Amino acid sequence: MTDDELKDLDKEVKKRKRIASEWASKLHDLVEDRLPAGWEEIPGISQGTIEACKAWAEANARLQAAQKG
Q: N or C: the chain end with fewer CB closer than 10 Å?
């Protein structure tokens, strides 16, 4: 993998981490501000958070593997 490809993958990991953090923030806001009245939002926000974290984990694993060699 070239240096440019590694840099691009690192950017992807950072972007996916930011997106996962945004979803985590939505989940936190739901818990802190809108429950129990907003209980119907739990599945959608939870699924979005799971998908964002999974996308980050997959990208991060690719980056770690590329950095090892």
A: C
- What pLDDT is stored for residue 3 in this prediction? 94
Two structure tokens written together for 44: 């959608």
Neighbours of 21 (CB within 10 A): 14
* Placement of tokens 């936190």 in the chain: 28
Tell me the C-alpha distance between 50 and 35, whole Å: 20
Res 1 pLDDT > 90? no
pTM of the model: 0.92
At 33, list the tokens. Answer: 């501000």
Q: What angle do CA 68, 49, 16 make, to 5 degrees?
A: 40
Q: Is the pLDDT of residue 57 over 90?
A: yes
